[in-house]
Amino acid sequence: MVSVRVTVLSGAGMSAESGIETFRDAVTGLWERFDLDELASPQTWRRQPNVVWAWCLWRYHLVNSVEPNAGHKAIADWQRRADVRVVTQNIDNLHERAGSAWVAHLHGSLFEFHCSRCGVEYHGELADIPEPVEAVDPPVCACGGTIRPGVVWFGEAMPDEPWQQAVAAVALADVLIVVGTSGIVYPAAGLPSAALTQGIPVVEVNPDVTPLSDSATVAVHDTAARALPGLLERLDELIG
Ligand code: OAD
């Protein structure tokens, strides 16, 4: 029997019920004087690497201290009956920790580090900061460069490989499920319309109305943790 091919496009709302604030709510506490696009930028990294590194370490610590929610677990569970590919804009690892085997990170990962000068991967120690602190010096590479997280900062190019994987995963899908993204950051936001153009149904899961809601085949206005368990069983009824 050929199993249904499901591609998921997830955004920050996917992890909200795990306790990770959505991207646009994420600059709080010690860093609230910064705009997100200023804090997560190559310019601020060059000027104040210790501030950016402290923020990244805090996010890293936060993600490690939370658990995948019922939505992440449902998507991983679908693998028993479907060919599931997850394309995520999230830099956390909650899809993987829930058990999803195929995950493409369009905006990189908070769990991979490399030297900002020579590019070599870093697998060394990371400062343990149970409470947020304002500034922490990043580790230094043998070449003298500073170690940075493998995430895409504002103004930086997206890595090509996950993007190519995402385009292919959408093209071969029987259905695209778009969860917890505001649908305003391109090119990821273009994937649902690419699916629709190819005749692939798009199911949106988001408690709010987004720019995608009108054109989606079905818009389920509910949260990820509530809507995703049971969604695969309802697909035929939803998309006909
Ligand atoms: P946003 O923070 O822009 O949007 C989060 C979306 O999740 C909103 O549409 C919310 O309505 C929805 N949402 C909130 N709670 C939810 C829940 N429990 N279940 C389902 N949906 C929920 O996050 P993204 O769309 O992921 O890029 O942002 C896209 C990109 O913008 C990020 O990857 C980041 C940022 O700039 C880079 O860092 C390059």
Task: Throw out a few tags for this protein.
240 residues; 30% helix; 9 helices; binds 2'-O-acetyl adenosine-5-diphosphoribose; alpha/beta; 3-stranded antiparallel sheet
In the predicted model, the low-confidence regions spanning at least 5 consecutive residues are: none
Radius of gyration: 18 Å
Fraction of residues in H or I helices: 25-40%
Overall pLDDT metric: 93
Strand order of the largest sheet: 3-2-1-7-8-9
Given helix and strand content, the structural type is alpha/beta
- Sheet bearing the most strands, described? 6 strands, parallel
Ions and ligands? 2'-O-acetyl adenosine-5-diphosphoribose
Question: What's the helix-strand series?
Answer: EHHHHEHEEEEHEHEEHH
Q: Could you say which overall geometry the principal axes of the C-alpha atoms support? A: elongated
Strand content: 15-25%
Q: Gap between N and C termini, in Å? A: 20 Å
Total E-strand runs: 9
Helix count, DSSP H or I runs of 4 or more residues: 9
